Amino acid sequence: MADDVLAGYRVTRQPYYRPVADEVALFEAAYSVRMPMMLKGPTGCGKTRFVEYMAWKLSRPLITVACHEDMTASDLVGRFLLEASGTRWQDGPLALAARHGAICYLDEVVEARQDTTVVIHPLTDNRRVLPLEKKGELVRAHPDFQIVISYNPGYQSLMKDLKQSTKQRFGALDFGYPEHAVEAEIVAHETGVSAEVADKLVAIAERARNLKGHGLDEGLSTRMLIHAGSLIAQGVSPLAACGVALVRPITDDPDMRDALDAAVATFF
Ligand code: ADP
């Protein structure tokens, strides 16, 4: 019965996930004790895909929330809706997951304001409860419920960081760009380009990643390589595909753009 509520959140098809180290076994062990987990790493390196894969492997529904700075606690917990016949309570995604036993994935949680983040605290310690203050209800988390957050350590500033009191409630797994051969395998699998093209795309990314902190704020992500590969698989020339999917999105600086275009031209 309860599971029907979450029918739309089931991961029914196995997502493609290429394990990089022992993250699958570690996450399984963490889930078996329902440890709240933090997936750390730059954008586009596989965190979301990993949690989708783990939800499939553990046969748990997955409720994902993209966090942003205007998000309020009510967006997570729920609110009363006005209807013709009166008011009706609607669980937010966190309450839904806690009540019915889903994995709740809060993506880029550092984007949310700190007063929003603290609503997860009572769910992340032994209490495993979620107070719905407006409704006057204390939800006891379903035994299958787990909370997972993603966190990009590169983005934090003094204004925007997770409080220690939040961080210390989680176990954490580090994600980074996979090593060359593995990343090429992922790019080839996701886009259908040849191993040779995938290999070159990864080599370009590695060059660009060396420029992080020297004119580039972020490394070129696996996601961007997949964009480039998909364009190439559509018949776009590799030079144009890399311009559109790799170089233009990552920099607005004309000198950096020319330097990256030149790097691409040495491969294609
Ligand atoms: P993040 O959540 O870290 O921002 P995603 O999980 O959305 O990034 O990863 C971006 C894309 O990169 C995914 O859609 C997937 O195609 C690919 N990807 C990255 N790492 C892996 C991996 N280890 N196995 C399979 N696909 C991966």
TrEMBL record:
Keywords: ATP-binding, Nucleotide-binding. Residues 37-170 form the ATPase dynein-related AAA domain. Residues 183-266 form the CbbQ/NirQ/NorQ C-terminal domain. InterPro entries: ATPase_dyneun-rel_AAA, CbbQ/NirQ/NorQ/GpvN, CbbQ_C, P-loop_NTPase. It comes from the Bacteria. GO terms for molecular function: ATP binding; ATP hydrolysis activity. Belongs to the CbbQ/NirQ/NorQ/GpvN family. PANTHER family: DENITRIFICATION REGULATORY PROTEIN NIRQ, MOXR FAMILY PROTEIN. This is AAA family ATPase. It comes from Tepidimonas fonticaldi. The lineage of its organism: Bacteria, Pseudomonadati, Pseudomonadota, Betaproteobacteria, Burkholderiales.
